[in-house]
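ARCHIVE CARD
Drawer: 12
Card no.: 0347
Subject: one protein chain, sequence and derived structure
Cross-reference: see card 0346
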Amino acid sequence: MQFWKANLLQALLVYGHALAQLAVGERFPGRRVVHVHRVFAVGLLLGWLLKRTNSIWPPIVVHIVK
């Protein structure tokens, strides 16, 4: 599978998971919808960072810091 397709797919899966959590009210207090959309963008960013660095550690550090 091409990288951009795989990255888009993983970001969509994470986005779907975030929407499911929003639906049951488990997470994202306050500005909920804004946070869910950020999940998709961060998923794309972390996937790109993984590909760019060829290491899992930079995405882990970004995830912790964000």
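Annotation on reverse: Residues 3-24 form the longest helix (22 residues). The chain has one domain: 3-65.
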